[in-house]
Predict the 3D structure of the following.
Amino acid sequence: MLMKTNSAKKELFDRIINIYPGLSPKKKRIADFILNDYKKLFMMKAKEIAGECRVSEPTFTRFVLDLGFSGYEEFEVYVKGLLHIELTSVERMLKSTKRTDNLTPLKAYYQNTLRNLENMVDSVSEPEIKSLARKIYQSASVLVAGYRASSVLASYFGFLLKKIRPRVLLDTQLSWDIFDHIALHGPSLLLVVFAFPRYANQAIELIEFAKKYRAFVIGISDTPRSPIISLSDQYLVIDVEGVSFVDPFAHVVTLLGALIHEIAFVDQAVTLNRLRKIEDGIRNRQVFYSVDSGLQKNGNPLEAKYYALIDSGGWGERKEPEGEDASGL
């Protein structure tokens, strides 16, 4: 059975309903406003909400205190967690049009990325990364999964992890054979699941199935209120602040790069040996373009120009190569 992702919304409504009978007429207007259209909380600031309800800002703050929050700041964090679950891409885009600054989109995203990076560095500790790295390195097999927008992060992490350790599977479609694999290898399997807003039910379904077969689950998400965190044996929380409906993952990719680095250096000699074998295969198949491979296939263009210049009389008489270099190789 899927875990319900509207628990935060229900909790907020329950709080309001419990205190509603004892509220003043002004505070009841605020309560009615939220109960009738709670999504406006995401679109409006405290001053705008107070104006809409025809009350003062201090009245709105006192209402927040009545709900059991220490102040508007804590309430705002609570609402932000609800926003991640509830807000659609259309609503996110409409919210972004209400920005009052005059930044260009590029500068707005640049500044947002810097804030996300700073928050990530301040909130994720080195021991957390080392603990995750060792757990991933020591596991018999690893399944990396992510769905919808989070599939981008799963693909990036899974691709790099395959480079540095064996027995890594990647799933971004919740395919049937993944369930078979979990059923066969559950106790020896480590599951790494990415789930960022909005949280795909596929991620929850996968984790709940894996837990039945005693797989160890590492959840990577944006808030402790994320539906996958309570299901995970170990987790990593990376806060994500956006400026529009586009998911800002630059700082998450940065952290994943650091995590891959940490895993690679758990046993540097083993990692180097594996990378050398992979590079040997890449070189034999000529997977990537290089200047040398181009010269072998097409001849040396600089040498051709050189001889053409000599033939035209520009640099004197052309001499054919002698001895070991006569083949021109």
About this structure: The radius of gyration is 29 Å. The chain is about 55% helix and 10% strand. The first strand starts at residue 141 and ends at 146. Residues 291-319 form one domain.
